[in-house]
Amino acid sequence: MAKMDKKWIVLCSTAIGAIYAAGYFTTETQASLQQPASYSQASVKTGSSQSNSKYKDGTFYGTGSNRRGEIQVAVTMKGDKITDVEISDFAMHYSEQDVVHLPQEVVRIQSAQVKNVSGATYSTQAFKDAVDQALAQALNA
Amino acid sequence: MMRKTKLFMDTVVDIQVVVADRSKDMAAATVERAFEVFRKVEQACSRFSRDSELMLATRQIRTAIEISPFLFEPLRFALEVAKWTNGMFDPTVGKTMEDHGFNQHYLTGETLHHAASDSATYRDIVLDEEQRTLSINKPLVIDLGAVAKGFAIDLAAHELKDFAGFIVNAGGDLYAGGLDNSGKKWKVEIQHPLYKDQTVQKIEVSNEAVCTSGSYERRSPLNTSFHHLVDPEHKHSPKEWTSCTVVAPYALMADAFSTAAFLLGKDRGLALVEQMNLQGILIDPNLQIYRIGGI
Question: Residue B278 is nearest to which of A5, A25, A120, comparing CB atoms?
Answer without folding.
Answer: A5
